[in-house]
Amino acid sequence: MVRFKAAGVEPGQRQLNGPQTTGRQYRNLSSAQHRTTREDNVPVPVRDGTRLLADIHRPDAEGRFPALIAAAPYPRQLQDLGAPAAIIEAGASDFWVPRGYAHVIANLRGTVGSGGTYTFFDEQERKDLFDLVEWVAGQPWCDGNVGMIGISYYAMTQMEAATQRPPHLKALFPFNVTVQAWEASYHNGLLSEAFITPWFRALGVLSAHGDRLYRKGLSRLLRKVLAIPAVHHRFRHADAVQVHHGLQLVSRLSHDAHPWGALLNAVAEHPVRDEWWDERDLTELLSRVDIPVYLGGEWSNVPLHLPGLFKAWEALARNPHVRMTMLGEHSLPWPWESMHIEALAWFDHWLKGRDTGILEGPAIRYWLPGAERWHTADSWPPPAIHIALCLNADGSLTADERPGERSYATDGANAMPAQLSWISDPLPGDLDMVGHPELRLTATSSQADTGWILLLQDIGPDGTSIDITQGWLRASMRHVDEDASETGRPVLPMQARIPVPPGEPVDYRIPLVANARRFQRGHRIRLILTSDDNREDFQPMLLFSHAPVGMACVNTVHSNSRLFLPILDDE
Q1: Is pLDDT above 50 for 376?
Q2: DSSP track, 137-170
Q3: pTM of the prediction?
């Protein structure tokens, strides 16, 4: 099958959705000049004899070309569907192939026709990815230069492959990455039930089908409809909440319980960080990665991938070839095809040897919401001063303490509220928060365990609220490695549960996910605290709610609690 209809940003091309650069101009970029040929369901042998299936999109021309691999458990057949679904994340083949790249989209072991059994981000998966990279490099149409691309799980497999150091893997572009399976499943001890449960079940549903559903019949008609420019353009701001609802709907369809049920059970059976999670943690392995890595994410992806972005940056600290960018809202909509010009400048430099200008300037670029402009930094987090705000008994959030205490009940009983909030006075000037916030909480609980769930908001003069970031902690997993911690970044080992002494004040250090926001003059800062985010009057970010802990519990917050916010030094 041969095609030629290039995607891009130039007139006459299929227009890509989403931002395409970090506000910069590049030079010497590959132009769209090749037609596309594709081979579907190509078997890729790995070392134990298992065969993975891949779709190969490549230039219909003589010669050899660099290759970009995208690998995940999601249907490879749907990556060109054009639907606003959170599984279409491999990148736009009709952008890459015309510009002289092969785009190889593979299914992981045990998913959507690939042989073997899916084992969830483990050593076996990493070995398979090594073999996939080296197989692609050895094909007659590949020049031996291999990169990897894609967001979310497609970003996670990039990091997995890199830890194995395949000789032909030359550069990565992982956006919305997670490097610890624990973080995708638990938020500091609280099970991320509204995500991880439907996610495993949806994998089971998706893996039960193949070409008949994904390439033929209705899917052919859908491709035509979704390719209509006016329809496609509507997806440029694909709402993550609606996409999450779609995931839950898919998860309710019938499917074979193996291995998805067993994996979900394993997550529940390992509620603390142990050897099962250690096998699914890349942080130590990433210290030996020395190939170029361009990390990225968006500030709004607080409950899933944003923590992993900063974990990856820290783990790659010894690597001199790492860049990082943080994007604003709606910057990585589905189907994923944003930031492709940025990625082209990256891969043209590292895989084709072109001088594109991608390495010019500081290593970090980030969008500052509220200021609505790009900032740069040489390190993360950028230099900042943590200001301390007191959680006062009158509900105010101030620099000076107003002694007292406030209580709430997890079930809303006893005529008590089900959550508490503290709000600042209108700000006298702009305040730029960039980095890692932390709540140092002193609280008393009536039960031996409870959950602490935080939501930080920007409140406008008209009362409009904007969610900025969240923090979480299971009270019984409060132990902090103080020697390894710093303000804003408490290190929580999560290796054991220590019961809370009922009725006694206990100190907690609760990290909020790093973020950036200009709180404008006249705006106010609000912090909300609850222990149950499944209620109708509390909406967690991306609807990622948690399995309840310590219900029928009364929690009391003492006014010596402090919210620490990282505020940029004056420029």
Answers
A1: yes
A2: HTSTTEEEEEEEEEETHHHHHHHHHHHT--TTEE
A3: 0.96
